[in-house]
Specification:
mainly alpha
Length: about 100
């Protein structure tokens, strides 16, 4: 069966709780995005906040496959290189299968 892709996952929006989405549809949908929130956490969060959110999203959406890590939306100019690096490092650390 061909997979359907759900993109974007805007986890800040009503009805977009990652755990609920995975529980209800994770066996039928590929989730693309939602790996880190781009309005507050990525531009303004600390390295620890970014790392924690990336870890939580991978642990929530990744088990059993069907998760393509991407940010919630496009990365804007107010995101520092240090915060981008924190996100990438966390993806490398927590995003290796098996989860």
């Amino acid at each position: 069966m061909a997979a359907c892709v759900f993109n974007p996952i805007q986890t800040e929006a009503a009805g977009m709780d990652p755990a609920r989405l995975k529980a209800e549809s994770g066996d039928r949908l590929v989730f693309w995005g939602g790996g880190v929130e781009t309005q507050r956490v990525l531009p303004s969060g600390s390295r620890d906040e970014i790392r924690a959110q990336v870890k939580e999203r991978i642990q929530t959406l990744g088990p059993g496959g069907g998760f393509v890590f991407a940010t919630t939306h496009n990365i804007q100019e107010d995101v520092s290189a240090d915060n981008l690096l924190a996100m990438c490092e966390a993806v490398r650390e927590f995003g290796q299968y098996p989860l």
